[in-house]
C-alpha cells in the first residue's frame, strides 16, 4: 500500500512526518509564542534567538555545558521511553535519578581509597541498581496489585526527596558545616572531564562540566535501540505495551515485562547520578536532580520514544538550558524566570500538545495525495 | 431484463437512474447516482436505489462492498460526493443524523448505542428528553412506548436496566428508540449477527408487524438465508456499485451469491468422510470462573481425535471463548481437567500459553485484532507472535531479522496474503489478509491440535473458501481441529461432529448429517428437543 493511500484511507501521516515534521512544527510554534513574550517584554526576539544559539553552541565552553545538560536528558528521556514501550507512563524518573545518585555516593564514600578502575564499575552498578530498586516497588504494585504506576511513581518522587533530606541532614553531612552535603570524594574517584580526556590526545578544549558519562549516555542510546527493536525481550516488552491480550495469547507474561521494563527504566534514570555526583559535584548533596527527571518526560514524548528522537530532543533541551542561562546575562530584562517560561512553552507544545497540529498537517497531506492521485 | 420493471432502479449497465421516468411518489427512499470518494477510493459508484414504501428491502454484499458507506450517507454520517436523495418523493439534504431523524429515518446499528447503567426508558428518552425537566418527558414517553410495544410485538420491560438485558432485547430497545423518534423508515445493519435463530425469528415477526403498519424497512446483511426469508426486494452491491436489483421471490441464493462475488461460489464445502484416529484432546468436567466471579464454564466434557473437526455451535457469550482460552493456556480452569497429547492440566496445574504451544497446540483466536495480532507490528513481527522464543528466529542476543522476514514471505506466498510486504504494519492489511497471516502462522507450525475461533469473521467470501479449505486440509493431514463459530453454515459444512454450547455447558452432540438450523437453534437456546421433547420449543434465552 502506498503512502498516499494510507494517508487517505486510514488518516495516517507518513512516518517521517509523524516522527520529524510534527515535533519540528511544535518546537517552531513554541519558539514563536516565546518570541511573542520576548516582544511584550520589549526585546528583539531575533536578537534573543541569536544570543540563545550563540550561548548554546557559540564557543567550546558553551558546547560543553550544552552537552552536559544533554547527558542528563538522555538518561531521563530513555528512562521514560523504555517504560513507555511497555505501555507504562513512568513519571518517577526524578526520584529514580535521585536514588541513583545516592547509590553512587554510597559506593564512592565507602571505596574512594580504591583505584578508579574499581570505583567506576561499582559506581555504575550502584547507580543502576538503586534507580532500578526505586522503580521496582511501583512496578511490582502495578503488575501484581494494579496500583496505577503514574500515581505510585509520583509518590515515590516525594518519598525519595524526603529520604535524601533525612539522610543528608542526619547521616552523611560533613561534620562542622551547615549545608547538608557529604564530604568531597577523593579526586581519584572523579569521572574524567571530556576536556581532560581530549587533552590525553593532545586536543585542547575549554573546561566544562561535560564528562565521561556523556559517552555512556550515547552508548545507552544504541543499547536501548538494539534491546527494544532487535531482541526477543524487546519484542515481548513491546507486545505487552501494544496489546496486553495478544501478549497473554502468545504466552508472554505482562507481569514479568512490566517489572523488567520498569527496572530498566529505573536504572537508566539512576545513571543521572553518574553525571551529576561522580562527574560534576563530587559529593553527595540535595536537589542535584533539579527537575531533569520531569523534563525527561517531554524529551521522550518529543523524541517519540525512539533513541534518535531522544538524542535530538535532549540536545534541544540542553541547548535551551545552556543558551537560556546566557540570555539572562545579555538582556537585563530577560530574567532567569523568562527562560523557564520559554522552556515551559517548548514542553507544553512538544509534550502536552504533541498532536495539536496533526489534523491540519493531515489535511495538507491529504490534499497533496489527492492532487497526485487526481493526475 | 428483470431490471426494467422492479422497484430498485437500474441494473448495472443500464442508463443512469436519472434518465428513468420519475415515479417518485410511491418510493420511501430514492437514491440517484450517489457517489462517494475517499480520496482515490471510490466507495460508492453511481449508486441508484429505490425502496418502495411499506416494503422490506434487502441490501446484500460482501464486506467492503459499500453497503455501510451508503447507509451512512443516508443517515447523514457522510456527505455524498455527488448525487441526490429523495425521501417520500421529496429531494432531501441530509447533513447530519438529526436531519435524517427529522426526515423519518431510524437506524439500528450492529453495535448498540445504549448506556448500560440507564433503564430502557431513560435510554429511549436520551437525546429526546423534550424539555428542561426530565419527569414530564419521561411520563409522555412511557405512554407512547407502551402503545408502540403493543402495536409491534416489541415487549420489553421499560424499567429494566439495560445492562441486564439479553442481546435480543437490546435490539428491541434500539428499534423502539427509532420508532419513538418517529421513524417511518427503519434501517437495520446486520441485525442478526448476534442473535440465536429463534431470536432472529422473533425479530422477523417484529419486522413483519412493522411492515403491516406501513413502515418501510431496509435490511442490510451478508446472509443469503435472511434475504430469502424476509425481504420483498433485494439489491446487490459489489465493489461500491449496485450490480443488480431483484424481486426476492424471483431469485435464488445461488444467483445472489454469484452476483455478490462476481463468479460462481460453492456454498457447501467439499470434503471426504473423516478418518478419526487417537484422541488428542479430552476434557473432563472442565469449569472456569472469570475475574468477576461469574461461572463461564460449568462442567464441559468432550474429546477431539486426530483427523476430525469438532465444531462448537452456540450464540456468542455462552462460554465458547472461555473454553478456547482455558485450552490455550490463557486462563486457568477453576475445576475439572483436560488432557492434551498425554499431558494433564487442571486447576492446580493449569496450562500456560507458552508451554502448551510447545506441546503442539495451535490457536487461531476468535478476535484477531484483540488477541491474534499486534496491529502496530510489521507483518513479519506479527507472523512470529508466540514463536518469538524459537531458536530459529534468534541469535545469541539479537533476533535474526533475515529469517523473520523470510518466514513471513514464505507464509505470505503460501497463503496468498496481499500485499506481499513483510514491513507493512499488520493494521494496514484487510481483515481477510490479517486472518490469513494468523492462520498461516498457526497452521504452518504443524500443531497436533488446532483451536480455531470464528475463522471467517469479517472475511470476504473469496477468502472464506480458502480458509475453509486449509482447515480441511489440516484435518486430512491427520490433525485434530476444534472449531468454534457462531455461523451455523460454517459449523454445519466443516464439522465432522457438532457440539452445541449454551450457558457454559454442552447441551448435546449432533451428527452434521442430521443437523439443521431448527435443531441447532433450539439447542443453542438450551433445549435439546430429542431429550426434552417438543413441548418446550418456545423456551428462549
Task: Note down, in words, how this protein is organized.
- The complex is a heterodimer of chains A (375) and B (541).
- Chain A has a domain of 222 residues.
- Helices cover 76% and strands 0% of the residues of chain A.
- In chain A, helix 1 crosses helix 17, helix 2 runs antiparallel to helix 16 and helix 4 packs across helix 14.
- Chain A has 17 helices and no strands.
- With 375 residues, chain A is mostly helical.
- The two termini of chain A are 18 Å apart.
- Chain A is globular.
- Chain B has 541 residues and is an alpha/beta fold.
- Among the domains of chain B are: 190 residues, 3-Layer(aba) Sandwich (Rossmann fold), CATH 3.40.50.300; 70 residues, no CATH class.
- In chain B, the strands form four sheets. In chain B, strands 6-7-8-3-9-10 form a six-stranded mixed sheet, with helices on both faces. A six-stranded mixed sheet of chain B has the order 16-17-18-13-19-20, sandwiched between helices. Chain B has a four-stranded antiparallel sheet with strand order 2-1-4-5, covered by helices on one side.
- In chain B, strand 4 and strand 5 form a beta hairpin.
- Chain B is globular and about 70 Å long.
- The N terminus and C terminus of chain B are likely disordered.
- Classes of the chains: A mainly alpha (375), B alpha/beta (541).
Amino acid at each position: 500500500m502506498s503512502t498516499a493511500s494510507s494517508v487517505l484511507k486510514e488518516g495516517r501521516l507518513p512516518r517521517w512526518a509523524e516522527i520529524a515534521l510534527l515535533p519540528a512544527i511544535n518546537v517552531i510554534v513554541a519558539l514563536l509564542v516565546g518570541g511573542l513574550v520576548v516582544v511584550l517584554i520589549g526585546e528583539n526576539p531575533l536578537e534573543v534567538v541569536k544570543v540563545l544559539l550563540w550561548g548554546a553552541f557559540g564557543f567550546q565552553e558553551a558546547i560543553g555545558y550544552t552537552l552536559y545538560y544533554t547527558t542528563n536528558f538522555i538518561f531521563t528521556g530513555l528512562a521514560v521511553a523504555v517504560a513507555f514501550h511497555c505501555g507504562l507512563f513512568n513519571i518517577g524518573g526524578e526520584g529514580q535519578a535521585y536514588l541513583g545518585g545516592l547509590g553512587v555516593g554510597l559506593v564512592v564514600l565507602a571505596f574512594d581509597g580504591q583505584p578508579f578502575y574499581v570505583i567506576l564499575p561499582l559506581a555504575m552498578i550502584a547507580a543502576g541498581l538503586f534507580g532500578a530498586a526505586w522503580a521496582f516497588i511501583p512496578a511490582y504494585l502495578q503488575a501484581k496489585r494494579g496500583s496505577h504506576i503514574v500515581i505510585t511513581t509520583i509518590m515515590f518522587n516525594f518519598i525519595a526527596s524526603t529520604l535524601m533530606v533525612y539522610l543528608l541532614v542526619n547521616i552523611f553531612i560533613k561534620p562542622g558545616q551547615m549545608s547538608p552535603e557529604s564530604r568531597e570524594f577523593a579526586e581519584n574517584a572523579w569521572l574524567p572531564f571530556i576536556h581532560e580526556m581530549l587533552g590525553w590526545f593532545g586536543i585542547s578544549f575549554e573546561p566544562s562540566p561535560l564528562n565521561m558519562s556523556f559517552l555512556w549516555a550515547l552508548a545507552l542510546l544504541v543499547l536501548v535501540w538494539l534491546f527494544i527493536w532487535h531482541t526477543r525481550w524487546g519484542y515481548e516488552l513491546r507486545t505487552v505495551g501494544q496489546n496486553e491480550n495478544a501478549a497473554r495469547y502468545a504466552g508472554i507474561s505482562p507481569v514479568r515485562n512490566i517489572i523488567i521494563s520498569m527496572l530498566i527504566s529505573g536504572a537508566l534514570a539512576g545513571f543521572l547520578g553518574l553525571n551529576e555526583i561522580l562527574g560534576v559535584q563530587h559529593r553527595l548533596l540535595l536537589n542535584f536532580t533539579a527537575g531533569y527527571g520531569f523534563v525527561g518526560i517531554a524529551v521522550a514524548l518529543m523524541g517519540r520514544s525512539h533513541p534518535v528522537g531522544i538524542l535530538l530532543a535532549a540536545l534541544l533541551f540542553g541547548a535551551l538550558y545552556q543558551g537560556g542561562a546566557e540570555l539572562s546575562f545579555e538582556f537585563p530584562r530577560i530574567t532567569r524566570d523568562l527562560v523557564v517560561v520559554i522552556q515551559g512553552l517548548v514542553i507544553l507544545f512538544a509534550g502536552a500538545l504533541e498532536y495539536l497540529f496533526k489534523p491540519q498537517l493531515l489535511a495538507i497531506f491529504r490534499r497533496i495525495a489527492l492532487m497526485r492521485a487526481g493526475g | 431484463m428483470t431490471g426494467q420493471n422492479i422497484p430498485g432502479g437500474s441494473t448495472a449497465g443500464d442508463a443512469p437512474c436519472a434518465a428513468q421516468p420519475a415515479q417518485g411518489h410511491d418510493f420511501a427512499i430514492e437514491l440517484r447516482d450517489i457517489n462517494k470518494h475517499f480520496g482515490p477510493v471510490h466507495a460508492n459508484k453511481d449508486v441508484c436505489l429505490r425502496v418502495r414504501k411499506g416494503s422490506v428491502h434487502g441490501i446484500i454484499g460482501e464486506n467492503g462492498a459499500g453497503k455501510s458507506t451508503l447507509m451512512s450517507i443516508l443517515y447523514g454520517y457522510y456527505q455524498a460526493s455527488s448525487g441526490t436523495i429523495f425521501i417520500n418523493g421529496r429531494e432531501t439534504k441530509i447533513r447530519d443524523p438529526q436531519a435524517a431523524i427529522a426526515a423519518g429515518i431510524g437506524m439500528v446499528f450492529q453495535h448498540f448505542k445504549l448506556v448500560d447503567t440507564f433503564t430502557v426508558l431513560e435510554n429511549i428518552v436520551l437525546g429526546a428528553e423534550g424539555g428542561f425537566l426530565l419527569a414530564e418527558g419521561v411520563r409522555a414517553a412511557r405512554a407512547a412506548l407502551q402503545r408502540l410495544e403493543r402495536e409491534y410485538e416489541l415487549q420489553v420491560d421499560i424499567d429494566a436496566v439495560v445492562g441486564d438485558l439479553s442481546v435480543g432485547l437490546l435490539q428491541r430497545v434500539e428499534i423502539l428508540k427509532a420508532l419513538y423518534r418517529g421513524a417511518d423508515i427503519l434501517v437495520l445493519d446486520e441485525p442478526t449477527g448476534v442473535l440465536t435463530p429463534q431470536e432472529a425469528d422473533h425479530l422477523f415477526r417484529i419486522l413483519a408487524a412493522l411492515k403491516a403498519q406501513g413502515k418501510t424497512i431496509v435490511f442490510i446483511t451478508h446472509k443469503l438465508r435472511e434475504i430469502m426469508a424476509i425481504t420483498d426486494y433485494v439489491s446487490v452491491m459489489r465493489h461500491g456499485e449496485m450490480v443488480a436489483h431483484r424481486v426476492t421471490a424471483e431469485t435464488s441464493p445461488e444467483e445472489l451469491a454469484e452476483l455478490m462475488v462476481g463468479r460462481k461460489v460453492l456454498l457447501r464445502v467439499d470434503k471426504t468422510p473423516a478418518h478419526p484416529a487417537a484422541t488428542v484432546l479430552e476434557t473432563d468436567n472442565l469449569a472456569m470462573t472469570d475475574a468477576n466471579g461469574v461461572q463461564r464454564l460449568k462442567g464441559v466434557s468432550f474429546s477431539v481425535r486426530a483427523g476430525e473437526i469438532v465444531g462448537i455451535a452456540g450464540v456468542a457469550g455462552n462460554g465458547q471463548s472461555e473454553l478456547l482460552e482455558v485450552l490455550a493456556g490463557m486462563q486457568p480452569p477453576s475445576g475439572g481437567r483436560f488432557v492434551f497429547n498425554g499431558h494433564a492440566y487442571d486447576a492446580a496445574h493449569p496450562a500456560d500459553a507458552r508451554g502448551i504451544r510447545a506441546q503442539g497446540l495451535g490457536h487461531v483466536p476468535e478476535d484477531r485484532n484483540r488477541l491474534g495480532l499486534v496491529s502496530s507490528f510489521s507483518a513479519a513481527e506479527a507472523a512470529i507472535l508466540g514463536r518469538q522464543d524459537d531458536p530459529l528466529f534468534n541469535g545469541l542476543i539479537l533476533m535474526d531479522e533475515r529469517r523473520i522476514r523470510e518466514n513471513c514471505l514464505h507464509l505470505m506466498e503460501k497463503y496468498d496474503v496481499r500485499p506481499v510486504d513483510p514491513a507493512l504494519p499488520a493494521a494496514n492489511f484487510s481483515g481477510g489478509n490479517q486472518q490469513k497471516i494468523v492462520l498461516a502462522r498457526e497452521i504452518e507450525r504443524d500443531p497436533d491440535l488446532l483451536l480455531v475461533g470464528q475463522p471467517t469473521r469479517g472475511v470476504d467470501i473469496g477468502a472464506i473458501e480458502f480458509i475453509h479449505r486449509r482447515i480441511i486440509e489440516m484435518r486430512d493431514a491427520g490433525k485434530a481441529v476444534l472449531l468454534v463459530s457462531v455461523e451455523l453454515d460454517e459449523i454445519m459444512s466443516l464439522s465432522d461432529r457438532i457440539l452445541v454450547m449454551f450457558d457454559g455447558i454442552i447441551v448435546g452432540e449432533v451428527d452434521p448429517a442430521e443437523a439443521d438450523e431448527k435443531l441447532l437453534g433450539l439447542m443453542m437456546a438450551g433445549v435439546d428437543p430429542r431429550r426434552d421433547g417438543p413441548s418446550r420449543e418456545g423456551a428462549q434465552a
